[in-house]
Amino acid sequence: MKTVYIAISADILHHGHINLIKKASEYGELIVGILTDEAVATFKRLPILNFEERSFIIENINGVKKVVPQTTLDYTENLKKFKPDYVFHGDDWKEGIQSQIRQNVINTLEEWGGQLIEIPFTEDVSIDQINNIIKNASSIPDARRGKLKQLISLKPIVRTMEAHNGLSALVVDNAKVTKDEQINTFDAIWISSLTDSTAKGKPDIELVDMTSRISTINEIMEVTSKPIILDGDTGGLLEHFVFNIKTIERMGVSAIIIEDKIGLKKNSLFGTDVEQTQDNIENFCEKISAGKKALLTDEFMIIARIESLILKKGMDDAIKRAKAYINAGADGIMIHSRESEPDEIFEFCDKFNEFAPDVPLVVVPTSFNHVYEEEFAKRGVNIVIYANHLIRSAYPAMMNTAKLILENERCKEAEDQCLSIKEILTLIPDE
Ligand code: SPV
Ligand code: MG
């Protein structure tokens, strides 16, 4: 009896898959590689059904002999293990991101004389349309809120980018780069106090009030489906925090990060150049505990942000606070630094892993910007936040265009810097 192998994620099942299974099973005993939850989350998007559910469906389809996990998009590991005589796939992977995966299949099969059989792609299935329906459905609050916790459990690191209005949020939601057989996208959206304030022409001193911040969150939620992490500044007065946090949770935000400062808050990247006061441990723990008590779901996360390194209070203080904040109920810790080298952040990570390896850890590498995500992930960081990069790149581009027009006293010279009129008219679809 010959053996046949196919690999699918099986999260959305359509007649194209059944067609493939039917044809493949005619050639021998069919083994179906099901992409693991980690693989689907890394290479596609968060799975709707988990691995066990997807496997159960597939192993009960006529013609399937057995299902096995496939941990990456690449088939090589499983092919070497099962040495199938045939691999089946639709003929739609000759170009684009999957072409290298296809080549690896051909090369591996050659080792024992196996064969790749490609069947015509089922034309009348629109995966884009199905994905759009899922995207819209997953933007509602109850579907969106839990996504951050899910991503933390499934991805080596949750890649998060700031947004400060609808347009920048669309960039975060839609930016996509194909690289080394995988598609890189952002996983989550950071609503930064710095960029939300800057976009309104205001300083980052908790001057932009909660009503205004909620309006920014709404604007961003209307056009995106990715999970949202809110920069909650100091959280304000405890008495206000417990109300605000309920509103944010109800809206479908996934997490709030509050920093252990009091008084007039200034941006952390000023460090000790300006006067900033750290809250005492007891007070801040009380705020965390009160916040946790006010919540209605266990999906929403309160992440405590430690400012000890920013304020030059030392590593021991940072570690002491991390322990206390976790004991008070914090669902995660953000450690911040404004050093250009990551040494103190790495030292914190190492120490943190000794007592809280399972508590999500967040970093914001604005100043230690040369560190790759992979390095952070290896050190146990779960979320990396690019906290201000869209607005910082937009401003010089706008200023440059403004100056070109002033210099030339007409707008022709600025044209090359701009989106074409056709592009801006079609950038936002009207339905
Ligand atoms: C923000 O983005 O507003 C932050 C991060 O709080 S930082 O600016 O680095 O303090
Ligand atoms: Mg901030």
What portion of the residues fall into strands of 2 or more residues?
15-25%
The chain-level mean pLDDT equals 95
Q: What separation lies between the terminal Cα atoms? A: 53 Å
Q: Can you identify the CATH superfamily of the largest domain?
A: Phosphoenolpyruvate-binding domains
Which CATH architecture of the largest domain is right? Alpha-Beta Barrel
What gyration radius follows from the Cα positions, in whole Å?
Answer: 25 Å
**Which ligands, by name, code or SMILES, are bound?**
sulfopyruvate, magnesium ion
Give the tally of β-strands.
17
Number of domains: 3
Question: Major β-sheet, in short?
Answer: 8 strands, parallel, barrel
Annotation field: number of helices: 18
* Order of strands, widest sheet: 6-9-10-11-14-15-16-17
Which CATH C-level class of the largest domain is it?
A: Alpha Beta
Give the overall form: globular
